[in-house]
Write a structure and sequence with these properties.
The structure is a single chain. 59% of the residues lie in helices and 0% in strands. The chain is mostly helical and 86 residues long.
Length: 86
């Protein structure tokens, strides 16, 4: 459902977010592995927590991409109000 006030050529940032979360997952997992090898458990745990967050974000973004370009919110979500002239 189009409300009429969004641009016709709007693009979703999901692909960029997918690549950024993948990049973050790789760095965080690598950091967790290297810090655990260097006997730094606090930093390893922090990097592991970031890796888990990046993995969850990656799954959510992949799910939204899989839903396709015609995904619309449910009927209980009203359309945006058009701007009112002042």
């Amino acid at each position: 459902m189009r409300s009429g006030n969004e641009p016709v050529t709007a693009r979703s940032p999901l692909r960029l977010r997918l690549w950024l979360s993948l990049w973050g997952l790789l760095w965080a997992a690598g950091g967790a592995a290297l810090f655990s090898l260097a006997d730094r458990p606090g930093w390893a745990a922090a990097c592991a927590a970031l890796a888990v967050l990046a993995a969850v974000d990656l799954i959510v973004v992949a799910h939204h991409i899989h839903q396709g370009p015609h995904y619309q919110p449910g009927r209980d979500v009203p359309p945006y109000e058009p701007p009112r002239p002042r």
